[in-house]
Amino acid sequence: VLFFFASFVIGVESYYFSPDSLGSSARMVRLGGVIGMGQYADSVFENPASLKRVKRFSASFFNSTLMEEAKYQNLAVAFRSPLGVVGFGFMTVGVDQIAKTQSKIYFDREEYFIDYYFDYKNSVAKASYQFSLNRTFHIGFSGSYYHSSFDTVKADGTNVDFGILMTSRRLDFSFLMKNIMSSSKISYSDTEEGTN
Questions:
Q1: How far is CA 76 from the centre of its chain?
Q2: pLDDT: is 42 or 22 the higher one?
Q3: How many helices (H) and strands (E) in the chain?
Q4: pLDDT over 80 at 142, yes or no
């Protein structure tokens, strides 16, 4: 079997660590981050057209810890209906109990102390739909909801992924465009007053 992999960079993520940067499954990590050829429910995080391979029902769960403190988890389910395959997924990465420090200045020194603890979380929820035009050509769409929180700062946004999967006996071709809405609005909020 020959696999053809193409990657097109449409935009650059800056100042945001997306949870799907780590990988959506142990298989994807093992293949070095190659996406688009998934076979199970975790395809909602990759190419939604790959959900074509779900026969009736599929569920996946992936869990990892990075540097002994960053917790990474994802859960996905997919099921076949008479009109195609429907899938849902939730992915999150975060660090719990980060210390927020303050300082107190005395006459001859400055001392630091822990004011409180907060959590850092980046999450993405996906809803996907896949349908087949024929035995060879398969199309998929995913709607994404992104949420990020760090202490008093929160951000939310939405976007859409589009995928195509063409299958044959000898060759599979996967094409994926992630976050294709260039005008997607992200809303930020900060409840802290003053300066950090």
A1: 11
A2: 42
A3: 1, 9
A4: yes
